C-alpha cells in the first residue's frame, strides 16, 4: 500500500511538472517572429510533445486505478463448467507448426474433456490439414477461397458450432495445459458469489450485470526471441517488445474496460459474439474491433497477467514491418468503424483509452520530429524554440527527469524509456506514411497473414537501413558543425542540443544494428527448461538434467564426464510431473561448462505417442526469455556487445567426447612412461614420454584393475600442438565395455596408477 501511494505521488508530481512545462512551451516559446518555416516546425514539435504527454498521462491514470479492478476467479463445482469450442485459425502455415498447437490443445485440462471441442479452422481447404485433424482426433472446418480473411474463417466456424464459450488460437500459439482452467471460471461470475470465504450460487436478486464477461484475454507471449531481442543480441537482458502491451498496458485497461482482444489465447462468450453479429469483416484487425464491439454491447472484457500460451514471434524484418503496418492501419480503421472515441455507448474512461490507442500510432511521427528538431537547429539554423538556456533548466529539466523515472515505475521493469525510444526510432520511417494515409481515409483493405519463416535477403536488410543511416549521418554532421569553433561557456550553452543529438544518435546506432540483422543457425528454437533425463547407454544408465530442448534436439548437464559413443544411437527417457517421452539420441558435441559437462544431442521420438509427449515437455513451460529488463545494462554495454558479437566469428563446437584434464604420470607395461595431460575416451595426450629403446612397435598397454588392460596406439601429432606432446588412440575401449568395464572410471584408474 505504501509503495502504491508513493507511485501515485510520483505520477502526480510528474503530471504537475509536465503540465507546467507544456504551458510554458505553448505560450512562451513559439518562434512567432522567426518566419513561417520556423513557426511550422515549432508548432509540430509542441504538438508532438503534447500528444506524447497525453498518452503517458492516460497510462498513469490507468496504472493508479489498475489494482482496484481485479477479478477473483471463482472456485466452482466441475459440473458447472460449460461446453467450449476451441478454434485454431489457419491459412497457409506449415503442418509441423499446426501439429504442435493442436497437440497442446488436446492436453488442456478440463473437468469433463468431452465438453471441449477442438477444430482446425482452415480457410484454404487443405487436404493435409484435414488429414492432420483426423490423425490427432480433432474437428476440421474448411472454407474455400479465403473469403473475408480471418473473420470469414472464424465466422464460418461459429456457424458450425454451438458451445456457449469459444477459445481462439493462432496457428502458432501453443496453449499451456492450464489454459482453460485459468480462463473459463471468469465467465461464471454472474452465477457465483463469494460469501464468508466460500463460493456459492447467486440468488436471483444477486445477479450483477457488471460482471457479465464478454472475453478473457491472456498475455500474448512468445517462446522465441523477437527481432529486437535477437538482432540486438539482447535476448538475455530485454523482455519481448510486446510484453509491455500484453503484460502491462492491456492489464491496466481492465480499469477502463478497454482491454484489446489480440486474436489469440482468448476465451469469448458466444452470446456476446451473436449480439455483435460475429467477427467484423470491414477491418484488417478483426480482433481489436471485436473487443470494442463487445464493450459497446455492455460486456466486460478482462485481461489476465498469467501467461497461458506462447507462440512464434516474427523472424524477419520485412514481415515485422508488414505486421506493424497492418496493426496501425487496422486499429485506426476499427476506431473509425466503431466510433469508439465519440460513441455514447462507452464511458468516458473507455473513450479516452481509445483516443490514446489512436494517438499511440502517431508516436512514430512524434519520434521523427524529436529526432529532426535538434538537427534542424544545429545544421540548418532553424529557431524551433524561442527561449534562454536558464529557462530550459527551470522548466524542461525537472519535468524530463521525473518523466523518465515515472516511465520506469509505469512499466515494472518490462520496458525503459530508452528502449521505448529505440523501438520507436527503428519503426518510425516505415509507419509514418501508412498511419497518415489511414487517418485521412485512404484505407488498406487486404488482410495479410504474418510470415514466420526465417529467410530474409541481406540486400533487402541494407535497404531497410537507409533511413536510419541517412539520419545518423545528418546528426553526426550537425553535431560537428554545431560544436566547431566553440569552447568554454559556448560549449556549456550548447549542452541541451548536444544532449539530444547524442541521445538520438544512440538510438539510430541501435537502428542500424537492428537492420544489419543476425543469422540464425537453427531451424527450431531452443527453449531453456530443466527436466529429468535418463540416459540408457550400453554400459550404464545415467541420470542428468536438461538445459534446453528443441523439436529435434536437446542439451543436458552432467556432473561427471560421460562416455557416449559418437557413432552410435542411445536411448533417452525424459520426464516431468505431467509428461514422459522415450527418444533416440545421437551425440552432436560435448564441452565443459562451469565445472560440469554440457552435452548436445539430436533426438527423435520412438513413436507418435512419445512425439506428442515430447512436444509438451518442450512447450508446456514458462518460457526462459527475460521477463524484466536488466537494469544494470547501459547503452554503452549494449553497443559494445553488438560490436563485439558482430566482429567475433561464431565458434561451433565439434568435440564429441569430453576432454578431461588429468596431469598424472603413468607407466605402461612395456617399461615406458609419460605424463597424461588430458584424455577424451578416444585419445590420450601425453608429455615427457619415455620409451624403452628395445620396443619395436607403437602399441602400449596400460594395466587397469580387475585384470583389464587398456591398449593405446601412437598416432600422428595434431596440428597446432607442441612437439613435446605425443598422441595415443585407445583401440580396445568397446571391447572392455562389452566385458563390463565402465569408461567413466578411467579418471579414478589413472589417479590410482600414479
pLDDT averaged residue by residue: 90
**How big is the Rg?**
32 Å
List the total number of helices. 21
**How big a fraction of the residues is strand?**
15-25%
- How many domains? 4
Helix content estimate: 40-55%
First-residue to last-residue Cα separation: 67 Å
Count the beta strands.
25
Summarize the biggest pleated sheet: 7 strands, mixed
Structural class based on helices, strands and sheet pairing: alpha+beta
Please write the CATH class name of the largest domain: Alpha Beta
CATH superfamily of the largest domain: Spore Coat Polysaccharide Biosynthesis Protein SpsA, Chain A
**Uncertain residue ranges:** none
Strand order of the largest sheet: 3-2-1-4-10-8-11
Shape: globular
Stated plainly, the CATH topology of the largest domain is called Spore Coat Polysaccharide Biosynthesis Protein SpsA, Chain A
User: Which CATH architecture of the largest domain is right?
Assistant: Alpha-Beta Complex
